[in-house]
Design goal:
With about 450 residues, the protein is of the alpha/beta class. The chain is built from 19 helices and 16 strands. The chain is about 35% helix and about 10% strand. The strands form 2 sheets. It has a 14-stranded parallel beta sheet with strand order 3-4-5-6-7-8-9-10-11-12-13-14-15-16, with no helix packed on it. The chain has a two-stranded antiparallel sheet with strand order 1-2. It is globular, with a radius of gyration of 31 Å.
């Protein structure tokens, strides 16, 4: 029997253009490993050590190990290896039976579970989960659009140790869920109900009564919330450190004043797209929240230089500041930041149309900017010129700058900046040059449509 072989040179490339014929010599099959020798590996390695090794594996690796042999199957599927499970990468495949089997397998061992965007999971599967995995501490249900208040009621009934819960975009969740959590999950420290449109002030008031240990509360896009509910965060949750109220358009200074008075440890606050806020909010934050590190107030169009002056007098720990569309601020605000915020690393000034080269000079010339500033956003600042880029030459840690629609920024200015900061990423856009009008007594140019009509 003849066969054809193509010899290669070690890089999977043929050494000759013509294959040559060779006689295929039958090689003896390798001797199978005796079962006693195979089992010897499992006998040498203690079960406790194998469990320890498996504890570092992810879900997919554990499933592969479970397919090796019966013994490894038992060890890999031991509940102690499944204390933290993230099924985000399998979201399209995760249905009710998967969660139910996982719940039975893990039981009380499971401490952290992520079902992020597992849209097929329902209340029925999570009911068995709540009953079986009563020691759960962290649960992420972001985007599980089929779950309702029933799931939160079961969590409140069975999962008293729950500390972190993410319900973002669970559109069927309402105030009843918050009421159940308030009663049964009083150790809750982090809660995300962003884009849960049925949440109202009543739910927030009830929640804060029972869950007074909250350190993080996120409610982006909850349009029904107002001061009547959110002020209770300041009244009942003194340990609050993170609050995100992005897009809660009914919020006024009353909520911010309540947070400033009651939550002295507040470090991260997002008030973007809360257009009713005034400088009074900034004044009270400056008086009460001296540890503030991140403040996002994009679209708060009533804030002025006076408000930021009051804020920065006492809040010297600010690291990230988003002032996009704060259209009333001017160079004075940048002067206050340069003097009082030595740790400022990320700053957005997009659409702040009163900012000029002078303000960037205040910022870039400060010692703090030279050491800390890493990101600067200047999109749609029409008065900014190449001179501003020159003021940033000393910001040695600057990594990225946004310059979209800054009409007076040129290629030459960016080139000069990069000679001083070769690693900086510059994002910009230069509109196509408009051709000049025709000179002399030539015939006026007509558009294509007019030519057709004529």
């Amino acid at each position: 029997m003849m066969d054809i072989h193509i010899h290669t040179n070690g890089f999977n490339r043929p050494t000759s253009s013509r294959p040559r014929r060779e006689v295929l010599h039958h090689q003896p099959l390798p001797t199978p490993i005796p079962a006693p020798v195979y089992n010897l590996i499992n006998q040498i390695i203690p079960r406790e050590l194998l469990l320890r090794v498996f504890s570092f594996l992810d879900v997919l690796s554990l499933c592969r190990c479970a397919s090796v042999c019966k013994y490894w199957n038992q060890v890999a599927l031991d509940g102690s290896n499944w204390q933290k499970v993230d099924l985000f990468n399998f979201q399209t495949d995760v249905k009710g039976p998967v969660v139910e089997n996982l719940s039975k397998r893990c039981g009380g061992f499971l401490k952290s579970l992520s079902l992020h965007d597992c849209q097929c999971v329902t209340d029925a599967a999570l009911e068995l989960f709540a009953q079986s995995c009563h020691n759960i501490v962290v649960l992420n249900l972001t985007g599980c659009i089929r779950i309702t208040d029933v799931t939160c009621q079961n969590l409140g009934r069975y999962c008293s140790r729950l500390q972190k819960l993410d319900l973002e975009s669970c559109l069927k969740v309402s105030d009843q869920s918050l009421s159940a959590l308030s009663i049964g999950c009083q150790h809750l420290s982090e809660l995300n109900v962003s884009w849960c449109g049925q949440i109202t002030d009543t739910g927030i008031r009830v929640l804060t009564t029972g869950c007074s240990r909250l350190t993080s509360f996120r409610a982006r896009g909850c349009h029904q919330l107002s001061d009547d509910g959110l002020k209770h965060l300041g009244h009942n949750c003194p340990g609050l450190q993170v609050a995100n109220l992005h897009g809660c358009m009914r919020v006024t200074d009353e909520t911010v004043i309540s947070l400033s008075l009651g939550c002295r440890n507040l470090q991260c606050l997002c008030l973007s797209k809360c257009p009713r806020l005034t400088d009074a909010s900034l004044v009270h934050l400056g008086q009460g929240c001296h540890d503030l590190k991140t403040l996002e107030v994009a679209g708060c169009s009533q804030f002025t230089d006076s408000g930021f002056h009051a804020l920065t007098k006492n809040c010297h720990s600010i690291e990230r500041l988003d002032l996009e569309d704060c259209v009333l601020i001017s160079n004075a605000t940048l002067s206050h930041l340069a003097l009082n915020c030595p740790h400022l690393s990320k700053l957005s000034l997009s659409h702040c149309e009163l900012i000029t080269d002078e303000g960037i000079g205040h910022l870039g010339g400060s010692v703090s900017a030279a050491e800390s500033l890493t990101f600067l956003e200047l999109d749609n600042c029409p008065l900014i010129t190449d001179a501003s880029l020159g003021h940033l030459n000393g910001c040695l840690n600057l990594q990225r700058i946004e310059l979209y629609d800054c009409q007076f920024i040129t290629h030459a200015g960016i080139h000069r900046l990069r000679t001083h900061l070769p690693n900086v990423l510059v994002h910009t856009y230069f509109a196509p040059v408009t051709p000049p009008p025709s000179v002399g007594g030539g015939r006026r140019r007509l558009c294509r449509c007019c030519c057709v009509i004529l």
